[in-house]
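User: Hey, my collaborator sent me this sequence without any context and asked if I could get a structure. I don't really work with proteins. Can you help?
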Amino acid sequence: MRLSVCLRVTITTVEPRLLGLDFGARRIGVAVSDELGLTAQPVLTLVRKNEKQDLKSLGRLLRKYGCSAIVLGNPLYMSGDISPQATRTHAFAESLSEAFSLPVHLWDERLTSAEAHRHLHAAGRPLSGHREVIDQVAAVLILQSFIDAHRPREESYNR
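Assistant: No problem. I've predicted the 3D structure and written it out in structure-token form, which is a compact way to encode the shape of the chain:
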């Protein structure tokens, strides 16, 4: 008698996590990728104090989630030109890179705030409640866009 055994092994790899940031003058929206590197999840909105305190708080989050890189929203003008906020964002990116010795990816964030407002409105959240979470939602949209753009294309196999 012949036995045939077919084993199906699924190997799940844990992707390095990413920290996504929506950097603003008063607040920083924070998101993190899941363990599989497929989705972005909101974490919190950091109310800015000063750069030293901001970096300290972000350092705690990087350690807590084991992040290996940072994705920072780059607020360009619609024309693609660098806005004054983009100049401040680039300086903050340098500070992040120096403080944590991690890669910092600047990612186009044009229209993410408008899209974040649409998502919150569609979820039934009143406009008065947007302020407390809008930066987190924007950070999620920035990070998810980065994840989607860098996801390997799956090949289909016909067997």
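In plain terms: The longest strand covers residues 40-47. You can pass these tokens on to your collaborator as they are.
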